[in-house]
Design a protein that fits this description.
The protein is mostly helical and 173 residues long. The protein is 51% helix and 0% strand. The protein has seven helices and no strands.
Length: 173
């Protein structure tokens, strides 16, 4: 014999009654008779025939790189570098290899974007010199031990480039 406890039955009965009550409701295609309705043709125009609805801008405000094979924009490369600003690591820790490798990659991306920018590399003379000095320091060795050895140079270059870019907002906005 199955025993049913009254405490379990009461909530089930209440829930069932609510569901039945909701299922019996009927809907119409519009609001009830107590809600004023607008004539669709007049809803979007004022008395003088002027549209009240906003018209979309004829040109998008988002700047999209037209040629996907073109060099990366400085703005986009700088955004990648900025994403590393709040991060750091302790040499020997598990995340240090990833972090320092990413900082190095982001600096290289920004370096390439600055060289390819329409303003010319002369406009970015200081940050390009800093990244060039960093490449000389790393001597082509991007292994974890070498990146950890030159951790201060990597983070220092990142911070100097960031500070320079913050002083030149027209280059990344």
């Amino acid at each position: 014999m199955i025993r049913i406890r009254p405490r379990a039955v009461i909530p089930a009965v209440v829930l069932g009654a609510l569901l039945v009550g909701c299922g019996a409701a009927t809907t119409t295609d519009g609001p009830g008779d107590d809600v004023p309705q607008a004539v669709p043709s007049a809803a979007g125009t004022a008395a003088g025939g002027v549209s009240l609805m906003p018209t979309p801008s004829p040109t998008p405000t988002l700047v999209i790189q037209e040629d996907p094979n073109a060099p990366e924009l400085v703005r986009d490369a700088f955004a990648g570098l900025q994403a590393t600003l709040d991060d750091t690591c302790t040499p020997g820790a598990g995340d240090c290899a990833y972090f320092l490798g990413r900082v190095n990659d982001e600096l290289n991306r920004l370096d390439e974007a600055m060289k390819a920018d329409k303003k010319g590399p002369g406009h970015f003379e200081e940050p390009l010199a800093w990244t060039s000095a960093l490449r000389t320091t790393l001597d082509g060795d991007v292994s974890t031990p070498n990146l950890e050895k030159h951790r201060a140079a990597l983070i220092g270059t990142r911070d100097r480039v960031n500070t320079w870019m913050q002083g030149h907002p027209d280059d990344y906005r």
